[in-house]
Design goal:
Layout (H helix, E strand, L loop, with lengths): L1 E4 L9 H10 L4 E5 L15 H10 L2 E6 L9 H21 L3 E4 L8 H21 L3 E5 L7 H8 L7 E5 H6 L4 H8 L3 E6 L1 E5 L2 E5 L8 H10 L5 E4 L12 H17 L1
Parallel strand pairs: 1-10, 2-3, 3-4, 4-5, 5-6, 6-7, 7-10
Antiparallel strand pairs: 8-9
Length: 264
């Protein structure tokens, strides 16, 4: 398994500057945020040749694409737009050499069964397309999918080729426990988000590794024992929480912490 970080940590830098950070930290890849705001890259295919050249010349690869397609909407036209977005992201991933694309189920606007039916219908339509292009659709454990029961209900209706982006902190936040979750989803995990946090006055506060309630070393040890070959990605959410500590300080701390966990 290898270590990377999501470019979500660097909303104030352009892609070239983020790639330089990866090189400085001794990493071989980034998790590339691709969103309409175009802070690092917009969801457009083919990829702008300028950025293809920048990535190629950096010798840093794209481990995965962090996209923003969601599929729970009651509006079929909205779901179709998101299906088209995911197709674009799949083509971008193939061009960039990325093996996985982060997608969301989306917040459930009605009952669980109806939402699951809509999500599975959209994603299953795209399963063959992603297979043909050699890219995994990786649903993040986010929103309602932070609850194991709902996550498993959805995956019972999905194509076997659709996988999981395991964000353990999101699941711990809603009361789940890694040691109880992991056996049920280990065979589906293709990418992992790591971040540590504590609860203060009813809100989640992100902290340096080992200072919070996320059992990072246990997660790493279990992934290693399971033969996980993907990336553990440090998710420092400065994009959404601007007052977080400087990622130039925190990301190296996470890298060293995770490396020590791997070696244990």
């Amino acid at each position: 398994m290898k270590i990377t970080f999501t470019t979500l940590a660097y909303p104030h830098l352009n892609l070239e500057e983020v790639l330089e950070r990866a090189k400085r930290f001794g990493l071989d890849a980034i998790e590339l945020r691709v969103a309409d705001d175009g802070i690092h890259l917009k969801p457009q295919y083919p990829v702008d040749k300028r950025w293809l050249k920048v990535i190629e010349e950096s010798n840093i690869r794209v481990a995965s694409i962090a996209g923003y397609a969601r599929f729970s909407s009651i509006d079929i036209n909205e779901r179709r737009r998101n299906e088209d977005l995911l197709k674009t992201l799949i083509l971008m991933a193939e061009e960039l050499g990325a093996k996985a694309i982060r997608a969301y189920a989306g917040r459930f606007p009605d009952d669980v069964e109806s939402s699951i039916n809509r999500i599975s219908e959209s994603l299953n339509r795209l399963a063959d397309f992603s297979d043909i292009h050699g890219v995994y659709i990786a649903l993040e454990t986010h929103d309602e999918l932070t609850k194991l029961e709902i996550l498993l209900k959805l995956f019972n209706k999905l194509s076997p080729s659709i996988k999981i982006l395991y964000d353990v902190a999101n699941m711990i936040m809603v009361g789940e426990k890694h040691e109880e979750i992991f056996p049920y989803i280990v065979d589906k995990i293709v990418h992992v988000h790591i971040k540590d946090f504590v609860m203060r006055e009813g809100r989640r506060v992100f902290v340096r590794p080992g200072k919070g309630i996320v059992p990072i070393c246990r997660v790493v040890k279990d992934l290693k024992s399971a033969g996980f070959q993907g990336y553990i990605s440090i998710e420092w959410e400065k994009m959404w929480i601007p007052d977080l500590e400087d990622p130039d300080i925190v990301i190296p701390l996470y890298i060293e912490f995770i490396k020590r966990c791997i070696e244990i």
